[in-house]
Design brief:
two-stranded antiparallel ribbon; 11 helices; disordered N terminus
Amino acid sequence: MLPDSAASPDSTVIMLGVIVQKDVLTGCHVENTDKYLILMLLKLGLDIAAFFLCCRKRFSSFISMCSVSVMLADLVVVVLLASMWFLGPERYLLSLCIVLAKVSAAYEALPLPVMGLGLLDCCLEHSRLGKQNAFCKFLRNAVLTLLVWMLGVVCSFVYGRSDLMELDYGRIRTLVCEVRKSELIVYFIWGLFTAVVCAMIPFWSMIPQWVKEAERLSAAREELQNESSDLLFTSTKTKSGEENYPEETVQPFPPLWFSLTLGFSLTWMPYLSVSVACMLSGFTTPAYITVNVLWLECANSLLTGMVFWANSKTRGPYSQLPENVCLWHVFWHLSKGTQQQLPIAVFNPSKGKRNTLLYL
């Protein structure tokens, strides 16, 4: 059922989606429409689960809006495949080929503009556009998402070949259709997996200790957030304008770039490892499968981590970023050797005569 690779007359490698297989001698034939339908249902279910697990503040960022649009597109594909399956093979063969070809070409065009606009969205958080109200952000993200999908639709008509082809393997004749895969996602996963593994090697012996310390900081952060509405690790400003951060321990702690890499890998290394294992086993997948919410959230974490690292020299850990699943603030403090302190009462000038607990 999964698309097979085949060589075209000009010796380029393409992916072929197998639609029907016929046995010439026995007259038996195997249709794969139901298998494509099951595959898309599984993908839709995985996307919904990933969205509710990863997106806490929905519609607040461009990537979260793209995640919603991908789920809606998956739902449309599921409805189309289900209607074709009910119609019967006499009516849907060519239509199924058109759907697979056009949809795969549309999904293939999404990753590059999504990553570019996602990076722009992260950078805009510290500008005037980032301080807009929720409705303006929603409208902006919706327009950008619509433009991305318009590009995908245009590419589907330009690059999506919907010709139904027949391959003859002796007694077995197969009706296939060309589908496209996303080369950018392949390079993205391979490059990111290789970079993370290479970054881990020099610090391999210290990683368990740093992970344990990060878990302790994260647990303390959650505990204090449950007890008070004040933010953990909030810095206070003196009259001279200097910020007093928590004191540091004398233990060796990782550099900032590796600490953020460690925070990213703890969340996304399982996804990257499974994807690489599938590629090594020759399990190729079309673009309408690889472009999913998991990949979108992984790309979102990468982009926000890069922007957080770039801004950390001037803003410390208090950088405004789109919502993502990685605890960048915790791993910033891990790189600084931050030691959790007990809350003490200090006078906050902005509150007049009111005393406020600030966690130092």
